[in-house]
Each structure stands twice: as structure tokens, then as C-alpha cells.
């Protein structure tokens, strides 16, 4: 009892010490924004998320709006889902007025972004996919899942390759929210049908939470491979598709190089503005 009383009396002191340590740790971890920007830009996953953030949140950053729309929110969720992106959000502006204004303007997005990135939160499948795309391994696993499960999306077959791709995807840390995500109609792919067919034909389970009458119609497949991993939008009620006629084509091999060039340009522009 005496020990408990001593602990109780000293608890406020310990709490204060802990708070000071946390604050000092945060300050110590904050790095200059130009350095954080460069680290993110040159990492494949973070670099792509940074590009999306600069495009989707451009109006908010420039002060043209004070509203954090869904696409800006998802871009920020993707950005902070990577270690480099999290550093960028918490970076030190070092007195740069432009940097400080930009960070202040995106504060309106903070509640939604923090909720979406919380460990146990359930998010839309669009948001879950953005989180996965922030990580190179998860993005690659998602690409192969879409490639090898084409038959599953168009019919009732879950092939060995599809099951294997699904198994690899599920082992990715950033794919955790894909398992529990819900379809909200913002997806650029037949979300409910994909979830229903995956549950029924790959896991031999009939999902009770999906009404079969609400499933999107099956479109006739063609000779090209449909990959719905890009952040596109529906057009005239139909889903946009990105078609890869050859997985090993030269265009596919050049894509990472093109992305690196763009991230380099963005990093150079940022540094010039700061100077």
C-alpha cells in the first residue's frame, strides 16, 4: 500500500517527464523539409505518392480552396503510409514561409488522414489500395494479383496462379486494409464483384455482407490484360481500363525510369523555390 501511494504521488512527475521525452524525440526526429522531400522523391513508393499529393492537393496547397477532397485525402493517406512520407509531413520548414503555409493549409486533412491510417480502422477499398500503392512490394503484389486473377474477375475460376498471387498480396504489411475494406462506389473497378468472386471461388466462402443483386455486370474479356491499379476515374458509367498487351514490353521496363525523371524534376524545383 505504501508503495502504491508513493507511485500515485509521483505519477504526475513521471507523466511530465514522459511528455518532455516525447516532445524532444519528435523534435530530434524532425529533419529539414528539403532533405525529407529529396528522400521521399527518390524512393519509388514514396515518390509516386508525392507526385499524387502534389497533383491532387494542388488547389489546397495553393490556397485556392480550404476543402480536403477525397482524392487529396487519399493521396495524403498514401504519402504518410511510407516512412519517408511520414518524415516529410513532420519535417522542419526552417523558417520557409511557403513551406509553413503549405503545411498549415493541409491541416484540414489531418483528422480524416489519421483516422484512415489508424491500425484498426476500416477504410474504403479505394483508400486501402492507395495505402498499398505507397509500398513497392505491395504495389507489385497487387499488380500480379490483377494480372493472374483476370479469370476470377470475369467468371468463376480461381486458378493456382491467382491463389498464389492472392497469398503473396495478403502477406504484405501495407495490404492489411485491403482484407477488410468496403466498396463505396468510388472505385474504378467492379469492386463488389471482385470481393464476392474472391471470397466464393478462392476461399469457398459465400460472403453474407454482399448482395448478389448489387454485383456489377461482367464485361466480356478480350485478348489484352486488364489492370485496374491506377488511380483513374469512371467515365460515362463505365470503368476505365489500362491494358498491357505485353507484360515484358519495353514501355513497362521504361516506366520506372520515366517516374524517376519526374520525381527528380519535382525535387529540383522544390529546392530552387526554397533557395
Automatic annotation (TrEMBL):
<keyword id="KW-1003">Cell membrane</keyword>
<dbReference type="InterPro" id="IPR039596">
    <property type="entry name" value="GAS1"/>
</dbReference>
<dbReference type="InterPro" id="IPR016017">
    <property type="entry name" value="GDNF/GAS1"/>
</dbReference>
<dbReference type="Pfam" id="PF02351">
    <property type="entry name" value="GDNF"/>
</dbReference>
<feature type="signal peptide">
    <location>
        <begin position="1"/>
        <end position="30"/>
    </location>
</feature>
<keyword id="KW-0472">Membrane</keyword>
<feature type="domain" description="GDNF/GAS1">
    <location>
        <begin position="125"/>
        <end position="198"/>
    </location>
</feature>
<dbReference type="GO" id="GO:0005886">
    <property type="term" value="C:plasma membrane"/>
</dbReference>
<keyword id="KW-0732">Signal</keyword>
<keyword id="KW-0325">Glycoprotein</keyword>
<dbReference type="GO" id="GO:0051726">
    <property type="term" value="P:regulation of cell cycle"/>
</dbReference>
<protein>
    <recommendedName>
        <fullName>GDNF/GAS1 domain-containing protein</fullName>
    </recommendedName>
</protein>
